[in-house]
Specification:
The protein is α/β, with parallel strands linked by helices and about 325 residues long. About 30% of the residues lie in helices and about 20% in strands.
Length: about 325
């Protein structure tokens, strides 16, 4: 296992060739790092997911359909007189601060700041990257972590997602690590890493000369290819460690693997909530108390971001979008 470089090295440039060949070559380099079986399984599951959704598209779930999920939500909010307000809310990004004690953290690293961005869905509209940039540019942080769902749809082209991430990347600092979400294709990884965003797929890297370890697992919600034990294998016993997971659903595995802190997202905090922030739906197989904000399971501290973006429809009620500044404290 190698330390995270101050400025991550981009992939070697490819010779001009057909896009399919370039894509295959980039994925071959990724397979050499994380294992060919994992890459092939992820691609096969993505293909099956896309085929299943495309069979449904002519009906209820088609984005252009009058009776689509999108249309039902929009019409319902309009009837309630809440649609304009909900759209404004989705663009009122807040920065939440979270202080957490991390077992084993050296005194020298007390106060280290991790900026977490989750579920940005950056290609949802042209204003979403600009909104994030505006929120990030005034914040001081040491490391940026991204906990998945960069793409808006769960299938289809990923070029617009990379283009939007390229707009955001200069504002994320020198050290950036990420994991994939259930909306993301593994084909995004070469492009993200070429920007200097290290994507951790059941892997770990050392920070601060080995005084802190940052690990990440693959999506545990849809693809279920997460392996916290494998990620933890690269962390020395007793070393302070933070696990990035797209969803809180991997909390048991994270605790069993010995991680001190897990940062995640996926739930959007419900996105459309009752007064008091009570979510109607969290879409995650975990206790509802793990769906937003800080939580604890045995010796594992956790934090679930409500996300900076919006899913399905660009609306939010009683659940403002967030970026999160985590300040790590020594015991």
């Amino acid at each position: 296992m190698s330390s995270l470089p101050t400025v991550p090295q981009p992939l070697a440039p490819l010779a001009p060739q057909a896009p399919a060949a370039a894509d295959a070559q980039a994925l071959a380099r990724l397979a050499a790092r994380i294992g060919r079986d994992h890459v092939e399984r992820r691609l096969a599951l993505e293909a099956a997911h896309e085929q299943r959704l495309r069979r449904l598209l002519p009906g209820f779930f088609h984005v252009e359909s009058r009776w689509s999920v999108h249309a039902v939500i929009r019409h319902g909010l309009r009837l309630a007189g809440l649609y304009r307000r909900a759209r404004r809310n989705a663009r009122r990004l807040v920065c939440r601060e979270h202080e957490v004690r991390l077992p084993g953290l050296p005194k020298a690293l007390d106060g280290l700041r991790l900026l977490q961005i989750s579920d940005p869905h950056v290609d949802h509209g042209p204003d979403f990257p600009a909104q994030l940039i505006e929120g990030v540019r005034r914040i001081g942080f040491d490391v940026c972590v991204l906990t998945g769902d960069y793409r808006t749809r769960t299938f289809g082209a990923h070029g617009p997602t990379l283009a939007a991430m390229a707009q955001l990347r200069p504002w994320l600092g020198e050290r950036v690590c990420a994991v994939l979400g259930n909306h993301d294709t593994i084909r995004l990884v070469p492009g993200l890493e070429a920007m200097g965003i290290r994507v951790l797929i059941n892997e770990a890297v050392a920070l601060e000369g080995g005084d802190l370890y940052l690990a990440g697992i693959d999506d545990a919600h849809c693809y279920r290819l997460h392996d916290a034990t494998r990620a933890a294998a690269a962390v020395p016993p007793g070393a302070p460690s933070v696990l990035l997971s797209h969803t809180p659903e991997a909390y048991r595995e994270a605790a069993a693997a010995g991680f001190g802190l897990m940062l995640c997202g996926h739930t959007h905090g419900g996105q459309i909530c009752l007064p008091g922030g009570i979510p109607l739906i969290i879409d995650a197989d975990c206790p509802r108390r793990y769906a937003r904000g800080p939580w604890r399971y045995r010796d594992l501290a956790g934090y679930t971001s409500v996300g900076s973006g919006s899913s399905i429809v660009d609306v939010r009620l009683n659940c403002p979008p967030e970026i999160t500044l985590h300040r790590l404290r020594a015991p």
